[in-house]
Amino acid sequence: MFKNNKPPKYGNLVTILSLDGGGVRGIIGGVILANLEKHLQEIDNDESVRLADYFDVIAGTSTGGLMTAMLTAPNDSGRPLYAAKDIVPFYLEESPKIFYGSKWWDPSALWALFRPKYNGEYLHTRLGEILGETKLDQTLTNVVIPTFDIKKLQPTIFSSYHASVDPSLNAKLSDICIGTSAAPFYLPPYKFPENDKMRTFNLIDGGVTANDPTLVGMTAMSRKSIIKHPDMDGFKPLEYEKYIVISIGTGSAKREEYYSAVEAAKWGFENWAYNWKHKTTPILDIIFESSRDMVQYHTSVLFQALESEDNYLRIDADTLKKDEVFMDDSETLNLENLKNIGEKLLDTNVMRMNLDTYTYEPIPKTVNNDQELKRFAKILSDERKLRNKTFHTMIDDSSNS
């Protein structure tokens, strides 16, 4: 599945882009993606290039899964439906229609005690309009989108590679996006298809599986090496020092203290499900945050062990305030604030996880995220040029033989 870029076998590296879940906080990631694509266009002096032209895999969970589809689904001309710069305007326009009446003191919030807070109808309709009948195996580069099947109580990972060899997994992108974004409490679980021609799925938000899908994306390429897929000729399954990984988060408020054991010891089911004092969903927040932190922990250790820390860029902010992290706050003021947070994050020094405290700390060298994105963009550009050169050389040699 390499329609706009050549596979790794023609180059030296495996390139992966990972996009976290986080509802409307996807705006933060959208700002980062727009800047990365802008750097690629400037380096290659070509405004038509898109992120899908440079990455072997784009992995996305929940709102990250939606962005993944936007960046990789083809339009009528065989190019990505959306440029990265279009993501933030899309969220600013569509979020209030998806998360209507999102303030917690709105009477509709009380409904969530008995049913999902939102019916999801607009989201379902809009994704159908945008993605149409496009299926997983039609994406312009490999995609990996985690979900969780509540009927089987197990993760379901949708990957364009598996869809190409197993028709039962070749679902419509719109269905996959609805499934991976069906966060418990907020949106209803999603069952599809409604016929017996395909495997049936009963899905909720992929964040309960991997809110940060970095390792899912890396594993997808490792599996291709294990089965000796021709795209991965020359790459061993665990040669992660040859991987270039950009992982983009959606922010958290972990530096603000939330709950105490003394307080939580008095909670029953209701307070764990929704806490009126904090206006939070504790059990869901804990699952999403722990899932994301463990992925970052393991990924950081892996690249440290391989002495390849400069191959892994994680851009995220753990300094958000509590009132900035609601995944469904679609008020204009909040959406614009999330955009500003993303822009400020570009000017923030590159951070890495402290493996003892699980918090982000600046790296020794003084470089901000935008400068590091530019460095990674140059690596991606060079790799793409190398693959194209190698491919055409092989074609010429074959023609002359």
Shape summary = globular
Multimerization status: single chain
User: What is the terminal separation in angstroms?
Assistant: 28 Å
Q: How many strands? A: 10
The whole-number mean of residue pLDDT values reads 91
Unreliable residue stretches:
none
Radius of gyration: 21 Å
Class per helix and strand makeup: alpha/beta
Mind summarizing the main beta sheet?
8 strands, mixed
- Tell me the fraction of residues in β-strands, as a range: 5-15%
Q: Helix coverage percent of residues?
A: 40-55%
The number of helical elements comes to 13
Order of helices and strands: EHEHHHEEHHEEHHEHHHEHEEH
Q: Could you characterize what this model shows?
A:
The protein is of the alpha/beta class. Helices cover 41% and strands 12% of the residues. The chain has helices spanning 26-44, 63-72, 87-98, 121-131, 160-165, 173-180, 207-210, 214-226, 261-264, 269-273, 282-305, 332-346, 369-400, and strands spanning 14-19, 57-60, 142-149, 154-159, 190-192, 201-204, 243-248, 312-315, 351-353, 360-362. The strands form 2 sheets. Strands 1, 2, 3, 4, 5, 6, 7 and 8 form an 8-stranded mixed β-sheet that branches. Strands 9-10 form a two-stranded antiparallel ribbon. It starts with 13 loop residues before the first strand and ends with a helix. A motif (GXSXG) lies at residues 60-64. Residues 17-218 form the PNPLA domain. Keywords: Hydrolase, Lipid degradation, Lipid metabolism. A motif (DGA/G) lies at residues 205-207.
